[in-house]
Every structure is written in structure tokens, then in C-alpha cells.
Amino acid sequence: MSSIDRAIDPEALKLFSFNIFSQLSGAVTAGMIHIGDQLGLYRTLAESDGMTSSEIAESGNLSERWVREWCANQVAARIVVAEFSYERHKGEGNIDINTRYKLTPEAVAVLANEEHPAFGMGMFHRLPATFDRLKDLPESFRTGLGFDYDAHGVEGAIGIERSFEPWSNAFLVNLVLPALAGMIEKLQDGITVVDVGCGAGSAVLLMAQHFPKSTFMGIDISEHALSRASEKLVVSQLTNVSFMNAKTTSLPKSSTVDFVTTFDCIHDMTHPQKMIKDIHEMLKSDGTWLLVDIKAGNTLADNVSKNPMAALMYGISVLSCMASALSDHNGEGLGTLGFPSQLAEEFSRDAGFTTFRQLDIAHSVNAFYEIQK
User: Fold this and answer.
1) pTM to 2 decimal places
2) 3-112 adopts what CATH topology?
3) For 265-284, what is each residue's pLDDT tens digit?
């Protein structure tokens, strides 16, 4: 008997419908978060101890009625806190015109403070560009061919940049690099560093600023991200950094690099095993590779049972990560949760690396590995 012929349990039906429309609620609210970020509404609220919808609208030269409805969504979603105050308007009922809206300190960190490592607006910044790929996905499902990160446009690249910069700025130099054996001393003395999958160049520029005796190269294939990196390099006035497009320029020669970093990019690559072999090849005999990638279980069951964000990550994989990893007909298609530590070690040892160590660094999403030849 097929599922369509089985009897329906009314209570189970209610619960299932609630679950389905809860997903839709989250998607719609995510769109409202994007609007709040783009219009600076969170930053406006962060600078106050509570504002009415009229005051919020006036500060941004916006329509009060639209702001009031946005605030209602945010309060219902438990994102913005409300101190309710109703006013009766003839023909309109009770209007929240005097209700005051505010953000908790925790909300400010996530929604409005781009310097805080918990800042989370990057993924919401690129939400329209990400969801715009929905129109391409039916064909991807038919052909098996995805699309690379530049398919998400400039805003997609900026969203990735805003996603990773806050944590990296706070902890890369002070926490992650010191966890690598002798790395701070080497960087201070002067070594050659390559960041593969550098994106907009945030990590490269940060390290270059702190270690002026070392030479840094950022490598990527995204023209949008590399354009951002070049702009930031000009502003920084650093002279120990360069960027290159791997599509048009060869990777560094064999045994010429002391230190390679990859941040959240191996699982996105069409040929991750080849890239890992290329990293092994470019490193000197005593070279180190810092691999940072998404924490994942070895099976779907592991991820679903242990990762409360598994549904989000698998969905983003279809929309972005796996799509990138399958943007070539021969792509391996690892996907967002497709590169667990077990597989990372297997690929590394197959490439010739002899030492594989997971670093004791707490992160909600990523795992950190020190890998040596």
C-alpha cells in the first residue's frame, strides 16, 4: 500500500502541518531580518533604549506603517522586545502607535554589531541572491550540474565576507594561529603564506597586517570576491599581500610555501582531493596546512541527531555549497556537511600528509585541523 492510500491520523496531520508552516514562518522572517539589516533598523534600535515605530521610521526617513508591521513580525518572532501601548483609532481598532521596541544586548551582538564575533547578518545579506537560485535548481536536479559562487553575484560575495569576518577578526590571530606549533614565531620571522579560497581577502589582510615580515598570497576563482579583495588591499596599503585568480594563474611552485590556510572552502570545491594534493605539493618539507571546515558527522543520522542546524545546512548545501561542488560535470559534490574529520584525514593522508591533528578550538560551526607533511 502506498502512503497516499493509508489512513490519516488527524492529530498527526495537525502536527505535521504545524511543522511545515513553521518552516515557512522561518523563511518569511528571514526575509524580514534581511530588510532590517539592509535598512539599518537594527542599528537604529541598538543605539536607543526603546523607540516607537514612528521614531524608527523618522530616523531612517521611512514609512511608519511599513515599519510598524515589520516590528510586529519581529516581536512575534521573539527577535525584538516590545513594551506594548495601544491607542484606539476610530475605524482602525487598537493601534500600537505608542508601543516601544528595543533590542536585548544579545540581539545587538548578533544583529547590529559588526565587530562582535557573534554578528550573524552575513547569511541574511545574501539571502535574496541565494534564494534567486531556486529558479535554476530544477534544471540542476535534472542535469546534475550546479553553479559556482559567482552565480550569486556581488551581494553573494559580500554576504560571505560579512559572515566570516567578525569571528576571524576576533580570534584568528589571537586564538587560532597560536594553537599551531611554532607558527607565531615563524610568521614573526618571515615566511611564505598562501590562503587558498581567500574570498574577499579578510584573513589574508588581517595576517599580513600583524606579520609584516611574512609574504601572503590569496587565491580564489571568484571574480566578485577577488574584486572586493583588491579594493580592500588598496585601502590597507599593505605591500606584503597579493591576490591571484586560480583560473588564469598557476598555483605556487612545488615546495615553495611554508604555510597554507583554507577557511570553509574545501567542501565547496569541485575537486577537493586534487586541491589537497596541490596543497601538499606546494608546501615545503616542514610546511603546515591549517584546514578550517564545517563540523560534520560521518552519516546523515549523526548530523540529524546531533546538529540542531542540520536542516539549514543541508538546505544551504543545495542552494550554495553542493551546487558549487557540482558546478563542474566531474565535481565530487561534498556539500556543506560532506567533509567530516574522518574524511578530511583520509584525503590528507592519501595526499601524502603524515600528521593530522584537530585543534582544541570551540566554534559553533567549524572544526580546525593542523596538518603537516
Assistant:
1) 0.92
2) Arc Repressor Mutant, subunit A (1.10.10)
3) 999 999 999 999 999 999 99
- The pLDDT of residue 158 is 94
Q: What is the mean pLDDT of residues 15-42?
A: 97
Which listed CATH number (3.40.30.10, 3.40.50.1000, 3.30.300.130, 3.40.50.150) goes with 128-372? 3.40.50.150
Please give the mean pLDDT across all residues of the chain.
Answer: 95
HEC states along the chain?
CCHHHCCCCHHHHHHHHHHHHHHHHHHHHHHHHHHHHHCCHHHHHHCCCCECHHHHHHHCCCCHHHHHHHHHHHHHCCCCEEECCCEEECCCEEECCCCEEECCHHHHHHHCCCCCCCCCCHHHHCHHHHHHHHHCHHHHHHHCCCCCHHHHHHHHHHHHHHHHHHHHHHHHHHHHHHHCCCHHHHHHHCCEEEEECCCCCHHHHHHHHHCCCCEEEEEECCHHHHHHHHHHHHHHCCCCEEEEECCCCCCCCCCCEEEEEEECCHHHCCCHHHHHHHHHHHEEEEEEEEEEEECCCCCHHHHHHHCCCHHHHHHHHHHHHHHHHCCCCCCCCCCCCCCCHHHHHHHHHHHCCCEEEECCCCCCCEEEEEEEC
Q: What is the mean pLDDT of residues 83-91?
A: 72
